[in-house]
Specification:
2 domains, 9 helices, mainly alpha, about 190 residues
């Protein structure tokens, strides 16, 4: 009788522990899916859920060591003006505008505190705080690389500039819109 109760208690404890682990894993998965969105899905497609989640956790730990910070209002204004200038130059020099847009995005990342490592590591780092636009970065970079080889149309270059703009605005924390509105109001 005593051993039956002990076995029953052990079984209940093991089942309870397994249930707790199961729900903790489900919660971890939900949190990572929510935080990383499309980047989570992309990594799961490439490998498996467990590897994808380990990679995303590794990215978070790596980026926590950086001193990522917002830009000052002056920096935001300067970068926003530089971006508007590149967009205006696109008509006359699409390929050059895309090259300069890439350089401008790199400058913003550097100013925010991101280390400038090789491209894949930069995208991994950016995905932690900007998971919904990191795919824009990949697409723009791919187009820019093909443009350097001369294998690209003007329409594709336009697409690259739009992809860079999505990341650029996110890196500026969308304050570029506020800056443009305020600049227009000040001129009136």
């Amino acid at each position: 009788m005593n051993s039956t109760i002990i076995i029953l208690i052990l079984v209940v404890a093991v089942v309870g522990a397994a249930a707790i682990l199961y729900f903790a894993q489900k919660q971890k998965t939900r949190n990572l899916q929510t935080k990383f969105g499309p980047e989570y899905d992309r990594l799961v497609e490439i490998g498996n859920r467990s590897r994808a989640e380990s990679e995303l956790e590794r990215r978070e730990k790596r980026v926590q060591k950086f001193r990522i910070h917002p830009l000052s209002p002056d920096q935001i204004t300067q970068f926003a003006e530089a971006w508007r200038a590149e967009q205006a130059r696109f008509v006359d020099d699409p390929r050059g505008a895309v090259e300069r847009a890439d350089a401008l995005v790199t400058q913003v990342m550097t100013a925010r505190g991101y280390p400038m490592t090789e491209f894949e590591q930069r995208t991994a780092d950016v995905s932690v705080a900007h998971p919904h636009v990191v795919e824009h970065y990949r697409a723009a970079h791919d187009i820019a690389q093909r443009a350097a080889k001369g294998e690209i149309s003007t329409e594709e270059l336009r697409g690259a500039l739009l992809h860079y703009r999505a990341l650029f605005e996110d890196l500026l924390e969308e304050r570029v819109i506020e800056t443009e509105r305020l600049s227009t109001e000040v001129r009136r």
